[in-house]
Amino acid sequence: MMQHRSIDTQRAPMRPPARAALPAPSEPASAKSVLVVEDESGLAEILALHLAAAGYTVWTARDGLEALYALERARPDVVVLDLNVPRISGFRLLQLLRRDAATATVPVLVLTALSFQEAREVARAGADDFCTKPCAPEAVVARVDHLAGRHAYHPPIAA
Residue 26 half-sphere exposure, CB side, CA atoms within 13 Å? Predict the structure, then answer.
């Protein structure tokens, strides 16, 4: 007869930090918050882990539509946006963010695999900063720190 081991039901289920619950719109957040819009789950999780370790409350969205739903519930201090996300592209999402008075001033860091020249055009279209993929998670955190008004510094984009 086969023996079965019981599963420890007292243990809390593990939850990835990338799926943090959104605060209620009326609740003040104690930490600065970041919405990471990235369809590559591995990259999204790495960025979420590094940002959380830096003290941010992190939410993730796998596509542009999920990001819009998240933005209806809460306003992050910074949005990290991949341009090549499904359902609503990052380009379109950036346009929508800039046209909406509630999100027009939210800083946006664009992640892109585009060339430097193409990325500069994206910056002119409304992004506050950009990082060309592949980029180190530490570089993303430094740029988010800068956009969130923290003390970190990164060189400005050449004109």
Answer: 0
Residue 44 has which token pair? 């999204």
What does the chain come to in residues? 159
Residue 141 pLDDT more than 60? Answer: yes
Domain 33-147, CATH number (from 1.10.3720.10, 3.30.200.20, 3.40.50.2300, 3.20.20.80):
3.40.50.2300
The SS3 call for residue 112 is strand
Whether the upstream peptide bond of residue 86 has omega within 30° of 0, thus cis, is no
Dump pLDDT digits (tens) for 26-71: 344 458 999 999 999 999 999 999 999 999 999 999 999 999 999 9
* 36: nearest Cα among 140, 121, 139: 140
